[in-house]
Sequence to fold (157 residues):
Amino acid sequence: MEDKIVFQEKDFAYAYSSFGIRLLAYIIDMIIVGSLYTIGKYILPISDGAKILGLDLIETLYTIISIAYFTIVSLITRGQTLGKMITGLRVVSVDDRKLSTSQILIREIAGRYIQNKFIFLYALALVTPKKQSFIDLFIDTAVVKENAYRDLYAKEI
Fold:
């Protein structure tokens, strides 16, 4: 097996994922979240309009399921959700070889919450050179094509 080159950020140039593929991965993930939410609604029968401490329980349940799904799956797979796996994408750190646990937690908990409240922040991926969204810029991550990343760096991810 040949040796892989030493990590250099500039080598990612052809590996960054397009906005369209990221959107498709997100749609797949949201279908999964919607399915989990529907199951959760039947397991925990919550009446419409139910509130606790002023929070709508239905909306809170959806937010918890969404954030938990993205966080847990990304932690287990080190940067992929089921949508990213299907579309061949992976989240990587642009300044280090390995995506850190703290980057995953910040990206998937704080980042998802903020970007889902202000959906236009996802559109930054359309105009940034590395196709990064708001939270990606903040924590130095990028979404890349899995096969390109493997070719460049990974014997094992």
Q: What stands out?
A: The chain is about 50% helix and 10% strand. The helical segments are 19-43, 57-77, 82-87, 101-117, 134-139, 146-152.
